[in-house]
Amino acid sequence: MYLSKEEEKILQGESGEAKRLAMKILCALGDFFHAEKLIKVESAHVSGVSYKTGGDALIEVLENFVKSEPKTEVVSTLNPSGMDRLKWKEMSIKDDFAAKQNRIIKMYQSIGILDLCSCIPYELGNVAKIGDHISFSESSAVTFMNSFFGTHTNRESGLSALASAILGKTPEYGLHLPENRIPEVVVEIEAKLTNPTDYGLVGYSIGKNFSSKIPLLQKVSSIDIQQAKQMSAAMAASGSIALFYINEYTGGKFEEKKLEKIVMDQRNLKELKEDFAPTSQPDIVMIGCPHASISTIKRISELLVSPISNRTKLWIFTSRPIRLVAESMGYVQRIERMGAKIFCDTCPVVCPIPEFDLSLTDSLKAAHYLPTMSKIESTAGSLEDCLKIAMGEKV
Amino acid sequence: MKITIKGEGLRGLKQPRVEGEALVTQMPISFLGFIDPNTGRVIQKGHELAGKNIKGKILVFSTGVGSTVGSYVLINLANKGLAPKAIIQRESDTVTLVGAVIGEIPLVHRLEQDPLSIIKDGDKVVVDSEKGIVEIEKRED
User: What's the angle, vertex CA B7, arms to CA B2 and CA B9, rounded to 5?
Assistant: First the structure.
């Protein structure tokens, strides 16, 4: 990869250890994936925050980075951490974990990375326009940004996004190049998708079947932000899909004739639903993967008409700014009166969840990761069904 | 029988040339949730490698999928001495590559022949990350 004189100097360590390490990472990527040069990014989003997922390696790597006191070059935001920074005791988090988690967040803050601790930075000010280059980790946000905002980002790792945050650059390869953003498979959706979880189910199946291809979805009657969030997260969890198109909605005219084509009909959707449907009573219901939007929290406050069953817990995950608004609107109080909890700064996937046997969630991403990340059997259903079961309705 | 295949390797590592026993999967890997960080044993239900240990192996797989935090999982394993000795991928991915850069794990991809069909479990494999080559000594049956 070509480096300018200035970039070359950074790689030699003339701008400090953090920038050298960052340049080393970007150069390895650029060389490996045949980038010609580094390009400017508008913003970055950095995963690798939870002590649970990053472990001591995360602390060691970050200590190396912050020693030379670098500052971010572009707007950069932080992914969820391993706990609610105020209510961690309610999550049965141990003191030692909390101390290490706070240390990790402090180190990120010290370089200027905004501590949103959320996986939906695009709802919280970290956005860019169509065609802009960004450097995002957090797989669900990558897919969402590429597919719905038309911004260009590869699936960065936490560390390569951190490198981009510090240098304001990324190697020009992969999804930064228009020729790599062309659909590779057509999926005709004949099934009727009625709620965000249905979109998640379809996304999950597409990710599983096509791993890293770019799908073009056809015959989708409509898609909103909540549906798109679930679909993006699911595709990026079961596979590594980083970009999909829904032709009527997300632009682009493509030659479709030569592409492999599959159909997903009502029967496929029914089978997927059955695969994930709970067959016994869950002891924990989790909403908010990706983080719940303000509209979802409002809806939960309306749908929770009776107290949560004493056999089940209901945990809702969102970002702190959204919780603040939900509080001032009275949604939080209404939800908590029914016995549910709303946690911030963390999510079902990256927090150490205390022992439960069976979980129910409206998110296919959470359902995908819970069995291995937290050793909890997982099931999935629509938001409405999740809440009904949380209020005691029999499965 | 010894076969040498050329590919592209991660350069600039302290110990780019290693030798070990191959552990091959036809399935992609998402390092987060795939492995027990304290033992190196694969814990992902339904994965071909479930129950096996990747420690000290030459891990051969198609590409990395899933969570972008996977790099730290690899670095953690490397720091604890539980990482694979080297990684061979059909086509690498950002998450695995960055984990290899910081974890100092030799990595080769884009081989001239498909590593997933040529390399079998138990084959003795030499990976030279600097030269981007893989030498395979087939296991005698």
Answer: 110
